[in-house]
Write a structure and sequence with these properties.
single chain, 84 residues, mainly alpha
Length: 84
């Protein structure tokens, strides 16, 4: 779960800062990631979407095909033997 806060504009900075600090305090207590973005600034949206996708599809450390890892180990051993 993550919280995305949309910055609108510089209408009332003090009210925006107060709301933002309340949101980030709540998120830290609940151990949830908090992002401040602007819908008008596309680059600010990248980080929350990257975070969300890495949580949904974690990077695999091991191959799903153990035969391939065994084959690559054998190939590496053969290459080392030829280099010596």
């Amino acid at each position: 779960m993550l919280v995305v806060g949309n910055r609108t504009g510089p209408e009332d900075i003090s009210c925006l800062e107060n709301t933002s600090s309340k949101a980030s305090n709540w998120c830290s207590r609940e151990k949830i990631r908090h992002f401040q973005v602007s819908a008008m600034d596309r680059a600010s949206l990248y980080e929350p979407f990257i975070y969300m996708t890495t949580r949904l599809n974690p990077v695999q450390n091991k191959t799903a095909f153990p035969q391939l890892s065994t084959l690559s180990k054998l190939t590496q051993k053969n290459n080392r033997g030829e280099a010596m």
